[in-house]
Automatic annotation (TrEMBL):
InterPro entries: GAF-like_dom_sf (IPR029016), HrcA (IPR002571), HrcA_C (IPR021153), WH-like_DNA-bd_sf (IPR036388), WH_DNA-bd_sf (IPR036390), WHTH_transcript_rep_HrcA_IDD (IPR023120). This is Heat-inducible transcription repressor HrcA. HAMAP family: HrcA. NCBIfam families: hrcA. The keyword Nucleotidyltransferase does not apply. GO terms for molecular function: DNA binding. It holds the Pfam family HrcA. Keywords: Repressor, Stress response, Transcription, Transcription regulation. GO terms for biological process: negative regulation of DNA-templated transcription. Belongs to the HrcA family.
Amino acid sequence: MSDGSRILEEMNDRSREVFRRVVEGYLSTGEPVGSRTLTRTLSQKVSAATVRNVMQDLEYLGLLDSPHVSAGRIPTQQGLRMFVDGLLEVDELAMEDRAALDQTLGDNASDVSNLLDRVGSALSGVTHGASLVLTPKHEAPIRHIEFVSLAQDRALVVLVFADGHVENRIFTPPPGQTPSSMREAANFLNALIEGRTLSELRSEFTKEIKKRRQEIDSLSQELVESGLAIWSDDAADSARLIVRGRSNLLGEQGAEEDLERIRVLFDDLERKRDIAEFLELTETGDGVRIFIGSENKLFSLSGSSLVVSPYMNADRKIIGAVGVIGPTRLNYGRIVPIVDYTAQLVGKLISDRS
């Protein structure tokens, strides 16, 4: 049993209700909740002095905090975590939210990248927050590889995938390459493909080059290594982070410290710090996960919250993630079903395409 669950079980009904009312009030308004406000909403009629005593006890437990000299309290990060794990009531997905997502994503996009761009816009529009979409790296088996000379110091490597997807990137080939060495390099790689994905081809290449050194001259070998390196060195391993709705985070922020927090958050996103951890964070389960403040290293400096869910392909393999970020006082009860539905919708759309 976690510490939060144990504390909840040990609370009496009055303490649990006071705690829940403080958190719900804070999530709704962003303001500290005072004892006088609580006395008007509690199911049991108690004095403001009694409520203040309960709030002091909750503060002693590390669940509430007093941001100012006033008697108002807000939940701590530990308190929010305990609320999310033990007391959060998740709403049903509202029909208007479902309709907005279905309408935005229902039309056929020209490609998966365009589809996921629209997912981000739809999610931020529905939640009035900032959305994150981690796109999958392309891991379909490769059908064909070709090297094309563009100039003395420029060449193009073309990858044709089994699903019809085509990628091409420009790189600097080794000096002295010839049409013959380019054909030899392509033939060598195409002989290795045999339905392998790019990541599988990279690991196989090193082993094969040692065994078949006589079959490829040094110039062709350098060309192969140069051509594959542009994928090996690619940031985030060809995954892409789409961020939409950043202006939503600034809409209601007035305090200077809040603006600074948002600026730090944007800096984190621009640098794509620890983006690879998105999938690692979600791979422990199919459902929605909530990370509050420093629980997620990506947003530890800005103290933001992340509600994230993985999406899967037709083989039930996790290939990406969608989420919503914002201040810790997110409306978790509403956001959770929206993120969950969006992830399921994206997974279905991608599975249908494949």
